Amino acid sequence: MISAHLSRYIDPGTGSMLFTLLIGLVTTGYFFLRKMLISIRVMLSGSNARLVDEGKLPFVVFADHKRYWNIFKPICDEFERRGVELRYWTASPDDPALDEDYEHVVCEFIGEGNKAFARLNMMSANVVLSTTPGLDVLQWKRSKNVDCYVHILHALGTAAGYRMFGLDFYDAVLLSCDFQADEIRTLEELRKLPPKELEIVGCTYLDIMAERAETLAPVRNEHPCVLLAPSWGESAILSVYGKEVIDALLATGYDIVIRPHPQSMTAEKKLLDSLMAAYPDGESLSWNFDNDNFEVLHRADIMISDFSGVVLDYALIFDKPVISTQSTLDNAVYDSAWLDGPLWTSAIYAALGPELSRDQFPRMRAVIDEVIADTALAEGRARARRQTWAFQGESVARTVDYLIGKHDELVNPSE
């Protein structure tokens, strides 16, 4: 899950402190003028009613990247099905949401980088839902005219895999299981934070993947297809092992697909460019950058990864084995550094398949064959499914029920 959390982390970029100061001044002025205009309107009407901001949006979803559409599409579809108005704001000009033909859901590109932050920092809404961590930590500041910020986890596994303070200033977090709630409560106690509202709803995108998988026939590859699907950053496979692991995989003679983490395209572009130049697409190796990873996961016979959240997606949906490198993670900058003892993901990843180490590279083919043939690993996958994926098939309805209930509570507190 950590990689997926990292994928939601917005790069602060250069000049973020100057931008933060500037947007703070602009935002303060904006809301002061807004409040004054509303006050004047009420006074002129002769009403004694409390001030009401008629321009406040009931629901806003914010996606900092198009790759999170798999999480938000089921939610948007449910709002549309119920006939409830929703605004979907995206920082990706090519977000698939922009091609949807909704009647009740308005999808809008709000700009990239600081332009998107400026819009967010001055938004007026009752309930805002996002996968983006770091609210009120970096450029994305809490708007004075938003009633409730709700975070939804974008992957199974730990809730402590964001960069430090990733969830601290949200009002509520939607989770997929109990141990995630325990992690957040521990962090709140350690940091002397007021308790957030935690709601276990399941996992929207995994429910949809499960529905899709039920309609597919098993893939019969002529040779085993090995998917190398790392996270990004200094602890991830491509940074730690680089060409060594790719050479070892090519030596197996199997079909190798490398699917870098989307964040690698910006955060470690130099490394990725050098590897792609050294290992271009060929007969036995290909690179995959599809926005939707479903097809490539379905095709693979085994996955090699690290601490990425895609490990659980692959193992739980396609019921296939994984080789991972959990031990390479340096968690010094993550929320997990505050927690004592091993994370749930560390233990469960070991149950999904063996740890990969450099001394196994010379016999990579034999290692892969052994793991594919190990039927005992199915129990580890079943255990992971039970422990981390609550309310299977119910997540979309539960998520939208929560959001609408929260809105009604905010707008009609006395009811």
Descriptive key words:
415 residues; alpha/beta; five-stranded parallel sheet; Rossmann fold; disordered N terminus; globular; 2 domains; single chain
Low-confidence runs: 1-17, 34-39, 44-53
Count of extended strands: 12
CATH top level of the largest domain is: Alpha Beta
Structural class: alpha/beta
- Total of DSSP H or I helical runs spanning 4+ residues: 16
- Assembly context of the chains: single chain
Percent in strands: 5-15%
* CATH second-level architecture of the largest domain: 3-Layer(aba) Sandwich
What is the H level of CATH, i.e. the homologous superfamily of the largest domain? Glycogen Phosphorylase B
Note down, in words, how this protein is organized.
- This protein is α/β, with parallel strands linked by helices.
- The chain has 2 domains: about 55-205 and about 390-410, Glycogen Phosphorylase B (Rossmann fold); about 220-390, Glycogen Phosphorylase B (Rossmann fold), CATH 3.40.50.
- It contains 16 helices and 12 strands.
- Residues about 1-15, about 35-40 and about 45-55 have low confidence and may be disordered.
